[in-house]
Amino acid sequence: MALYITDQCVNCDVCDPVCPNQAIHFGSKIYEIDPARCTECVGHFDEPQCVEVCPVECILIDPDHPETQQELAAKAQRLQIEDAA
Fold this sequence. Notes:
Layout: E1 3-5, H1 15-18, E2 24-26, E3 31-33, H2 49-53, E4 59-61, H3 69-84
Antiparallel strand pairs: 1-4, 2-3
């Protein structure tokens, strides 16, 4: 599953730079996660880095974007190829 950021986000700016897939960006009011780029850090780290650094614990599993570990790994590999091109 992809992750999402709740409206409890305090815009502390720590999640964006740690995302290996550049899935996090500043939205209209708070940071947002692009589910097409979020792999929960599969293929990069054991744990989602944004969740690790978030001081208010406002990053949750997105139930609207269910994905298996295998699907996340395949997405990570695809993104790495696309970003290298």
